[in-house]
Amino acid sequence: MPLACVFHCGMPVDPKTFGNRIRCLASGSPLDDFLANFHPKPRPANLDALGLRSGMACFANVSYRRYACCYQVRTRKCRVDGMALDHYVSQVHLKNFYSPALSGMMYAIRKSDLKRFQTRSQDVCRIEEGSTNAYLSEDRAIEEFLKVVEPRYNASLAKLRENNIDQECILCIAGFAAYVVACSPAAMRIESGPMKMALESAATVLDGQGLIPQSPEALDKKSITELLADGTVTVSVDPKYPQAVGISNILHYVSVFGNSPWEILRNEDADSPFFTSDYPAAIETFDLNTPIDRVVPLSPDLAIRIIPDIRLSGTKQDLSFPKFGAALRRLKRTEVVDLNRLIVRCAEDLILYRDDREWVKGFVAKNQRYRIEPVTQKLSTGTGDLLVSTQRIRLPDYESPHPQEESR
User: Fold this and answer.
1) How many CA atoms, within 13 angstroms, populate the side-chain half-sphere of residue 276?
2) In the chain, what are the domain boundaries?
């Protein structure tokens, strides 16, 4: 996907056929039939669907784009009984990082406090009802997608190692990366930033058009623009909404990842196996004119670098992956260190690894304060705002007045 993209927040997500079509693929029906029948369409804007408690919901033309401006968004309550504990990083992936020195466990360290511990795959990278999304007509639809991906994971790793890559292998690995990018807590946080900017921009544009009344006397009859500027009014985005957008576009992500060039990264350094994390889709960035590369650790000895083809932006998805290409790279020790540094910096908090080396804690400590942050530029066009959004590896803004960026 392009590194820099014009942010587009449109109508509520409702791919009505999503669950049925994914189940069709999971049950083994031909892929061509699946593609022919999958046509998710958002339903018209509906206040009840958005779950607005108060405030406003409206659409405004902002530099020829349509933005939904919503305040105080809420979702329906989760089930009390039988609540699912959903893994946002698949257990089949995590089990590849089990240590031979432990019995069915791996090592872990948190960036937040550098606490180290041993853990099982089922005990980490999970949240209650994490895959349930009330903005979708089938709120557990993504679980059907995972039934396509997870059972094929280990076989796909073997195909990558043997250079026997086929359509099923590409679908599985691209699907794993797409799920992390679309549905994990890190993804929800990152994608909420551009949405917040879009909502603020839409409010300002509407205010300039005289479509939003002044505030009451208790707020000095200030405009919404003034109230946003002085912090009296703040905009918050329900992180489940960007997750819903990601889920509705999951097959597009798979198509882009699977039709882009890959580098198969082999790590033969026994002292420095690859880490994984609670966000195993690290980014490499260059400038606004190039895509974000994704580095995805798959096992201690294997990772991939996906170099998204910017020409795929806006094209029809194609899960036969006719444009796929891959090159094998055997990494030097310095390259492995660089990639592990990237994995640590892009993690939200948790680093998971196979071997308990003495250098691990110090290595994580040097990189613990970095994480992926959304970066949105607002360009005034005279009639509205053009928002250009990207991502960078940075120190949090509260730690540094000039956040540092990380490039490959």
Assistant:
1) 30
2) 5-394
